[in-house]
Amino acid sequence: MAHARLSLAALLVCLVLGTVLADTRYTNKYDNVDIDRILSNARILNNYIKCLMDEGPCTAEGRELKRTLPDALQTECSKCSEKQKTTAEKVIKHLIDNRAKDWDRLLKKYDPTGEYKRKYEKAVRSA
Hints:
By secondary structure, the chain is mainly alpha-helical. The chain has one domain (2-126): Orthogonal Bundle (Antennal chemosensory protein a6). It is built from 7 helices and no strands. The chain has helices spanning 2-22, 35-40, 42-52, 60-74, 82-98, 100-110, 115-126.
């Protein structure tokens, strides 16, 4: 009986730790998406922007991005892998340089106070 309680306690500790550790990073299941292909294809990029703006359907990747974006902005991507940080910088730079109107629309939705804009634009420009 004591052994069963100990095993149950160990299982619960493992489950709690697994949940806590899982929450410290975003999923990496989309890290191998070809971001250059997306950025160079106006139709695909438009679809992602429409997804983020609630103006069109979302792919699985788009839904994940939409779900994590507010937290990533707020925490300065603290749960991002290095690959995700590099990709985010690339996308931001592309939008600023090539799709300024879309960048402004996204900022109005996800950063209405301008709090994150200053941080991220400065970081991208210095990269």
